[in-house]
Amino acid sequence: MIPAVRAIARAAMGARPVPLADVQARAELLARYDNRYLVPVDVFAEFATELTDRRRPGGPFASLCINGRRWFRYRSVYYDTPDLRSFHDHQQDRGRRFKIRERLYQDTGERQFEVKLNGTGGRTVTHRRPLLPDDAALGTGQRDFLADVLDRAYGIDAPADLDPSLTTDHQRATFVADGQRITCDAALVGKDARTGRSVRADGGLVLVETKTTAPLSEADRLLHGYGLRAAPFTKYCGALSALRPDLAAHHWQRTAGTAFPARG
Fold it and tell me: Does any domain span residue 225?
């Protein structure tokens, strides 16, 4: 087993299990602040032990459990324009930026069409629409949904020309406390939809993402105590930067090189 997968599995199995309904009730956080960290597995083990300690003030973080499983397989297909408008808007930290993706929860078969926006004050705002098994990800209903979201949020038209740009696969364990959710991703693989080339993340790193209603959470402060700082990294921009180094600005190249040592 890949070390990062083993680390998230051990952490999830050591925590109190909670069903998806409890996670959604306590910390669905469709509008939130996100911070991302590339965490070595030995540091992650200590960090997870602190989070799930039963003596933690306010109670320990619990782990998402569905049908007896504590960690799950995810696949995402990202859509972008031919000139990669979404990628470049995120790389340049533009205000009215968005990402479009289809997410497949491989262990349950659930599919979601998602539009992620940059909200006020640096928050991430996610809009999602369920997909039926036979639905086309960019069918009429989804395009209408996208157009409505972008019009209401930014007053702009949706791009007409969209194609798959990147597919990612990873495994995830999720930890939750009231108003806080932490996702821990391992075994990330990105595949360039244009060239078919793929890149695999460092198996000794866990991508930890803190999601909360405040800019800094307890988990952020714990990670800072280990000498870690939030990284300019998303799975979409990081993997595409690793696969196409000519696209990446300097700071993206450095982070992509850390996450993906054997770059495309």
Answer: yes
Count Cβ atoms below 10 Å from residue 201 Cβ, excluding itself. Answer: 29
What's the full length of the chain, in residues? Answer: 264
Residue 196 inside a domain? The answer is yes
According to DSSP, residue 121 is labeled G
Q: Looking at this protein, which amino acid is placed at residue 80?
A: D
- Look over the chain and give the mean of its residue pLDDT values, rounded to a whole number: 91
Q: Which has the closest alpha carbon to 158: 78, 262, 86?
A: 86
Q: Which residue has the higher pLDDT, 174 or 27?
A: 174
227: DSSP letter: T
Query: For tokens 């078919």, what's the residue?
Result: 196
Q: Which domain holds residue 158?
A: 3-259
Beta bridge partners of residue 201, listed in sequence order: none
Beta strand extents in 151-250 (DSSP E only): 163-177, 180-192, 198-200, 205-212
Strand partners, 15: none
pLDDT (0 to 100) of residue 22: 77
CA–CA distance, 148 with 158 (Å, rounded to integer)? 8
Model's pTM, two decimal places? 0.93
The residue assigned the tokens 């933690």 is 56
The string of pLDDT tens digits covering residues 70-109 is 999 999 999 999 999 999 998 888 888 999 999 999 998 9
Give the bridge partners for 252, in sequence order: none
Give 35's strand partners.
210
Instruction: Return the H-helix or E-strand segment holding 37.
Output: strand 31-40
Asked, for residue 199, whether it belongs to a domain, the answer is yes
Q: Please state, in angstroms and rounded to a whole number, the distance separating the CA atoms of residues 43 and 4.
A: 11
